[in-house]
Amino acid sequence: MSSQEQGQVRSLNALSRRRALLTGLGCLLPGSAMAHHAPKQTRTGKGLHILTFSGKIAETQGKVLFKPYEQLTHQTIVPHGWNGQITDLQHFTGLTHFPLAAAMMEASSLRIGCNLKLLSRHQADNSASNCGQPSAAIDYAMAWDRARFDTAPGWSDFWDVARHPGRRSLRRDPRLTLEIALLADGVPASALYHVLATPEGVDHAFLKLEQLRPYIAWWSTPEEAGHILTSGGALMGCVPTGEILGAAGPDRQRFGLLWQQRFLVQYGWGVMTAAANNPAALAFVSWLEQAVQQQAFANAWPSLPSMAELNALAPHLGHIPPAIAVDDTFWAANLGKLSERFQQWMHHT
């Protein structure tokens, strides 16, 4: 085992696994398969048990992915909510009353899960990083309460607690959070990962976070990020844009979104090591990775407003600028050591 892999094991406290690829079911789905489908909460051992993100993400997947798959294959899908952290896979893999088949997570986590042998990869897949195909892209942006701002704020305003007193919400994870700290301190988007790749750059990001520490409301899941804002738990915060755009009328109108410096996070599905020889698990993940299913989720998940809505919300923009792509290669290599430092910083008073 390399020193990097040993570090990942120490920092993430997880077992190792590989991921599976399988040629899926190339079937088109009938229109009637798009009926409403709420995530099941059963804890029985029946069905194909999977991990995904509770809230609007699971609701959308239920409608356009899980229910159609059930109608197509007569295979029951049983979703369970989780926070996407590699360290939590140990807990779920240890459960015997509902053995897990697959889990949705960030692309960087897929790679780490493969290296740590928590996830399984088909033997025919010899690539170093192909531990699951990205199958969903979710935008994260700053949202703010319109009633509290005369003009749209930027990330530098996020740190200005003198002019804009109140709580701010950020992710309880170095991913996104360190990038935002650097943006707020004037680092160009194009240089974020060059800066984070140096010890000085990491120090820079943590020093910036330290300025905001007393005012941060932390979230661990996309659903929690949306709830903190809509419940009034923070004046402004980092949130999946779909949690705001998909909210009920009053909440949707209540919040503005910073489109100029948002982030694009890639997600995929990994097959659990224990399910590596389970044809049902392999077929389900293969089906989710097909372009038809990826497009179905993209069409249903409200990451971006329509041009008409954008012009009404921010007429000065004229167009939606491209998002900053989170660098999965960087995080796959550095998440272990940066998570360790992040946790030390979180618990230091």
TrEMBL record:
Keyword Signal, does the record have it? yes
Q: Does the keyword Transcription apply?
A: no
Which keywords describe this protein according to UniProt?
Answer: Signal
Query: Where do the coiled-coil regions begin and end?
Result: none
The record, for InterPro entries, names: SBP
Leader sequence segment: 1-35
One Pfam family recorded for the sequence: SBP_bac_8
- Please state what the protein is called: Extracellular solute-binding protein
